[in-house]
Amino acid sequence: MQIKEDKIEEMEFDILTEIGNIGAGNATTALAKLINGRVDMYVPKVELLAFKDLAEILGGAEELVAGILLSLEGDIEGSMLFVLENNAAHHLVHRLMGSDGSDVTDEFTEMELSALLEIGNIIAGAYLTAISQLTNLSIIPTVPSLAVDMAGAILSVPAIEFGKLGDKALLIESQFRDEEMDVCGYFILIPTMESYAHILNSLGM
After folding, report:
1. Which helix (H) or strand (E) holds 77?
2. Helix, strand, or coil here: 44?
3. Would you say 116 and 66 are in contact if contact means Cβ atoms under 8 Å apart?
4. pLDDT tier at 49, thresholds 50, 70, 90
5. Is the pLDDT of residue 94 over 60?
6. Taking the alpha carbons of 147, 37, 122, 56 in that order, is the dihedral positive or negative?
7. Could you tell me which of 185, 189, 20 has the C-alpha nearest to residue 119?
8. Which of 20, 28, 175, 198 has the greatest count of CB atoms below 10 A from its CB?
C-alpha cells in the first residue's frame, strides 16, 4: 500500500485517532497506578502535522518542556517523543515522590530527573502497547533519553534523523486531571512512511 505524504484519507485518520484514544486511555490507567490516585482523561486531540509545526503546538520554540525520546524498531520504525509542560512535569514528579511541591523551581534534582524519566517511560510504554495490541505489530523501543530544555531544542534531536522518515508526525495531545490540577502531555509518533503503511495494512486498510 502506498501512502500519500500530502494527504491522509479520512478513514485512515479515523484509525489514527482511535489509536490516540486507546493510547491515552492506557496512559491514564498507568498514570493512576503510578501516583496511586485517581486520574481522569479528557478526550485527546489527534493531529497529523508537518514536523516543522510541532514547536508552535508545544507553546513555541522557547517554551520550557521535558521530553522523553525513544527510537522504535521492529515492525514499526521511527521515533517517539513524549513531552510534558514544565509545570506538569514538576507536578507529576512531586506526586510520585510524595512531596507537597512547595519548593518547585525550574531545576530538577537528580532524583527528580530519575523519577521524571520513569514517568515518561511508563506513559510512553502505555501508548506503544496500545498501538502494538491494536495492530498486532511488534514495536521495540530503545532505552529512553530525557532532556529538560526549550521545545525547539528538544525537537531538534529527532529532527536530525527526520530526513530518513516521512514529513508527518502523529501528535496526540492528552490532558489528564488528578485531584489537584490538569496535566497536559504530548505524544508524538514519527514513524517511517513504510511504518504508516504497516499500521494501516494491519487494520485492513
Report:
1. none
2. coil
3. yes
4. confident
5. yes
6. negative
7. 185
8. 20
